[in-house]
Write a structure and sequence with these properties.
The chain is α+β, with helices and mostly antiparallel strands and 441 residues long. 39% of the residues lie in helices and 21% in strands.
């Protein structure tokens, strides 16, 4: 009955066997009188107790309504979910009690920390982002630190909310265990090659995580289109950014485990201890759904900074970014302790990485690009130098002529006589293709 009251309500029958068949009661009338009083005394709730008959036998029906406030049975809290009864403990109990009070974890006041303790650098970074996004009144952005924090609804009376510490304290782990990000590169599930941990306020964690994954953990497949070097990463930047933001903004910070990113040769996985709204499954996340942030105070500040939207489209944006980049659709897996988001790498990417990078071609420098644009046929070095308006002979020879020759973009008309006074230069087929690519860009 405690479990029913803490969930959606329910009905309990006394006098049926495990197959649901009525077997009758010998003391039905006594139970009819005693049960309402015992439930009231022990649980503090009122239940509807009725005497029913079926096939000539009596049984008791107890109807329990859902209660808006927490109900405990001798100091323990239970909740009915489907056909199972669960005792609520730890973070689950914390979430349940807060929800019953109409509060969220990030909105709870936190004694022992003041506005003066918040990082000035973190708040300045927020002001810059919010100024660019235009989602906060300019007058509020010019206000004092204390006034800005209050405008962002990060105070509860004379206390700061937990969200303020996560957003703007330089070391939120002093107050919230596990408020950091862990990244590792794995050769296999059990073979960790190297790893990093990222700390600081949430804006710092977000920026540093995205940058470090991109520059250290993801390898680009390199190709050339004409003379232009093309780098293709296995996870699109937009999808990676959205995934990291979703994990840090919407995770359950009552759980003392950090957000974890595992990078393998063939995939990237991201785990965070998130909690979906009651009754939600992965199917709800993949479909159209309203925005129901687990940490509304944190989400509001990231929205004001222009970092996220508030339309419940995070997963859809990740999928769309992967589709646009031509990478495989990401996979979602919900487990009792959190949510896994996996980015499998495209077969083309894995094939390119297995075959190794193509022969290295020097990139087109601005000098070489100018040189290619000066050609209209065959030209001597002096003609080209005059066309480019250059005075330094050595600079012309090294930065322009030699660089273009090494890249195979130009060739000598007299290759057997490189020092001939009659020597001229012309574009190669590769040079003409490169010039066309530069014209398009």
């Amino acid at each position: 009955m405690c479990g029913f009251a803490n969930a959606e309500g329910g009905t309990l029958h006394i006098g049926r066997n495990d197959r649901g068949v009525v077997v009758g009661l010998t003391d039905a009338k006594k139970l009819l009188v005693d049960l309402p009083n015992q439930v009231r005394d022990i649980l503090g709730i009122l239940v509807d107790v009725n005497l029913r008959r079926e096939a000539g036998l009596e049984f008791i029906e107890i109807r329990v309504e859902p209660y808006p406030h927490p109900i405990s049975y001798r100091g323990h809290y239970y909740r009915r979910s489907g056909s199972t009864l669960q005792e609520l403990k730890g973070a689950a109990l914390d979430r349940f009690l807060l929800r019953r009070q109409g509060r969220t974890w990030d909105g709870v006041p936190l004694p022992g920390v003041k506005v003066a303790d918040l990082s000035g650098a973190a708040i300045r970074r927020f002001r810059e982002l919010a100024r660019t996004s235009g989602r906060l009144d300019p007058a509020d952005l010019r206000a004092s630190k204390a006034a800005l924090i209050q405008k962002l609804q990060l105070t509860d009376g004379r206390y700061l909310k937990r969200a303020a510490v996560l957003l703007f304290h330089e070391d939120p782990e002093k107050f919230v265990t596990g408020a950091f990000v862990k990244i590792g590169f794995f050769r296999s599930e059990s073979d960790l090659a190297y790893h990093d941990t990222l700390h600081g306020d949430l804006f710092t964690q977000t920026a540093r995580t995205i940058d470090l994954v991109r520059t250290k953990y993801l390898k680009a497949a390199i190709a050339y289109e004409g003379i232009q070097r093309i780098e293709r990463y296995p996870v699109p930047d937009a999808a990676l950014r959205e995934a990291v933001l979703n994990a840090l903004v919407h995770r359950d910070y009552a759980v003392g485990a950090p957000v974890q990113i595992r990078v393998y040769e063939d995939r990237l996985t991201l785990w965070n201890p998130c909690v979906l709204p009651d009754g939600w499954t992965v199917r709800n996340l993949l479909g159209a759904h309203p925005s129901t942030p687990f940490n509304p105070a944190i989400a509001n500040v990231f929205f004001r900074a222009g970092e996220i939207e508030t339309w419940g489209r995070g997963i859809q944006r990740i999928i769309a970014a992967c589709k646009e980049a031509g990478t495989p659709r990401p996979r979602l897996r919900l487990e009792p302790n959190g949510l896994w988001l996996e980015f499998p790498y495209a077969p083309e990417y894995l094939k390119a990485m297995a075959s190794g990078p193509p022969p290295v071609t020097p990139e087109v420098t601005p000098e070489v690009g100018r040189l290619l644009s000066a050609f209209t046929g065959e030209h001597s070095r002096r003609e080209l130098q005059d066309r480019l308006g250059l005075q330094d002979d050595d600079h012309m020879r090294i930065a322009y002529i030699m660089a273009a020759l090494t890249a195979g973009l130009i060739e000598m008309t007299l290759p057997d006589k490189p020092n001939s006074r009659l020597q001229k230069y012309r574009l190669t087929a590769k040079g003409r293709s490169g010039l066309a690519s530069l014209a398009k860009s």
